[in-house]
Design a protein that fits this description.
alpha+beta; Pnp Oxidase, Chain A; 7-stranded antiparallel beta sheet; 4 helices; 7 strands
Length: about 140
Amino acid sequence: MHIDPATPFGERVARRLREDEIGWLTTVGPDRTPQPSPVWFLWDGATFLIYSQPGTPKLRNVARTPRASLHLNSDDRGDDIIVLVGDARFDADQPAADQVAAYLAKYRDGIARIGLTPESFATAYRAAIRLTPTALRGH
């Protein structure tokens, strides 16, 4: 999937993927019900990196059904919608969060706000999810 920053929509998507701190990862529960979870994410231009605490429902959901989506919050009027749909997987080879400079640059203040250090965050949120989007929609 390619995001074209030469278009107004593509430029807005690229900016928000860089700047937004929260996205909603929606996985599929065992009863096939969508299960949205607020997450921190890092976009590398091809995939999203999301760290999770081990043993969470979202990890079990991804293991069972890899189809997932990431939604960004709308503006106050319900506009500026961005939804990316794709396939998620557990990424056992991903370095710990405190070893990913771009992730720390984006979330260092957030990590401190929740009372953790980069090292304690990396220990608590040691399960990495990699979401590869295949479709983008929004307005």
